[in-house]
Amino acid sequence: AVDLSQWPSKLGKITVQVPPTIRPGDTTAVIQIDQNQNSSLVCSASGIPYPNITWAKSDGGNLPIGVAQFRGAVLPMTNVQVEDMGVYRCVADNNIKPPAEHLAEVLVFHAPYTRVVQNS
Q1: What is the mean pLDDT of residues 76-95?
Q2: CA 118/CA 43 separation, integer angstroms
Q3: 10 Å Cβ neighbour count for 43?
Q4: Could you say which DSSP state residue 99 is in?
């Protein structure tokens, strides 16, 4: 028999890293907002370590808060205008590949508008 008490030992902790996933049931897919109203988009993600969540507009335009990107699970949308309508991308990244991505569509209800077309 081998006497294990003679062997060196060390206690440690193992952390299993898990790539990010987005929880679709808790994440905005389509939101309908009246013009000039407030709302928010939610991106719910998990992973180990907990992922950073970043919002951007898919067409590359500015977000309703006036910046190109926003870091956080909840994107505030204040005084929403017709220009804010479109597809928004939520990316969850914790440096464990691959990052998770989700698209949310924003529809803005507004009064109809007309423009004069001249007869020629």
Answers
A1: 96
A2: 47
A3: 26
A4: P
